[in-house]
Design brief:
There is one protein chain. By secondary structure, this protein is of the alpha/beta class. The protein has two domains: 190 residues, 3-Layer(aba) Sandwich (Rossmann fold), CATH 3.40.50; 239 residues, FAD/NAD(P)-binding domain (3-Layer(bba) Sandwich). It is 34% helix and 20% strand. The strands form four sheets. It has a seven-stranded mixed β-sheet, with helices on one face. Strand 11 and strand 12 form a beta hairpin. Helix 1 packs across helix 14 and helix 11 packs across helix 12. The N terminus and C terminus are likely disordered.
Length: 488
Amino acid sequence: MTRAASDDPPPLVVAVVGAGPSGIYAAEALTQQSETPVDVTVLDRLPVPFGLVRYGVAPDHPSIRSVRNTLERTLEKTGVRFYGDVAIGVDLTADELRDSVDAVIYAFGAGSDKRLGIDGEDLEGSIAAAEFVAWYCGHPDVHPDSTDRPTAESSTGADGTSRLEQEHVTHLVSTTTDAVVVGVGNVALDVARILAKHAEELAETDMADEVLDSLDHKQVTDVHVLGRRGPAYTAFTTKELRELGQIADLDLLVDPLDLELDTSGLAVVGRDKVAARNLVVLREWAERPRGRASRRLHLHFWTRPVRILGDDRVSGVEVERTALDADGAVVGRGEPWVIPAQLVVRSVGYRGTPLPGVPFDDGTGRVPHAEGRVIRDGGFSADEYVTGWVKRGPTGVIGTNKSDAVETVTSLLHDVDDGALVPGGRVGRLTALLAERGIHPLEMDGWHRIDAAEVELGRSHGRVRTTLAHRSELLAAAEADDQAAVQR
């Protein structure tokens, strides 16, 4: 790839909207090449970076969460800056952002959830896995301050209700004995595992104090996980599945009849090694004699919810048996029964939500694009790109975002090479615009102070770290040294 030489070529000024893995991997891909000088600002509406690595990976999975150390190194690079606590659609419009930089890469993820589409889904006690995960990870949206300002990104659930009004999760968890989790992916297993574990088994994690306190008061005895298809079609990994078998004082209950494979299931297991390994684990559990543990985790395959029962709050879930028709679609077989429950967590997928001023396809829940180039008004937008879940949908693992970001950045650099995207000497324009608005973004030095405050809080409680869950706590920690300097 050749480009015209210049004594001092102006850097390409790029804004990345979203400081999760996809956004930070995009910044990494931009800075790893040397042919086009770049100046990158990664923005996030939250005061802290790392997105789902901080707020989506279960706290009892520290090895996965540690990927943030790699992401942090990218944000520390020369030519990259982090601007937290800046909400596009509130502090700046998308058009204002575009006018202040040469190119924008949207990486704001998929913060909402897919619906089940059954009666009773809006009852008190029926919640999205996205909300429950955000709660136990200490996300400020689910642990709001009374003075929290509105945000435009991911501030509403799929039902249109404000996530800032959903603090009832704590109450639900502490008043539930029987829970139903709908879905058979890793997130569903995370939810089931957190519900099934004793609080002391989570005491060494970085969970927020208020979350641990709530889990210490929970009364859950039975967790039911529902899968519409058979065991060959699960989406979880074997490692995640085996973790359930390592939980103390927990009986794992699987109906051996659910594990019998039809022709389709045999074909899947024959070509999918993960499915085959999962089946081995499940059959081992099915053969175990029922123990006398204080809690039970029930895995139901070929079972789907028909409706959620209850008056003011969930009291149960009516389910039915399922099968595959000639076309491989799931159909109901009838044979209904009711599983008692006071909590239903739907874990059937995340879904993107629109950002004001940015093209969005309501049907797919994604920003329309081709190879990462945003499509606006029927054609390619000259300066807009997209990566991550809001580009491809909520699929893959954390590492998938890296190759996805590389594809998008490759498209962007090709556009520079072809002259479709031209550096315009806009260094500093975004910073100046924020200053004019009186907006003071939280930068990496602020994050380092938050990081230190969380580590210190954890140590004071005999833990490695304790998450600060409220926006006010995060901002106070970020400003702590500056305030102390003023006082001195």
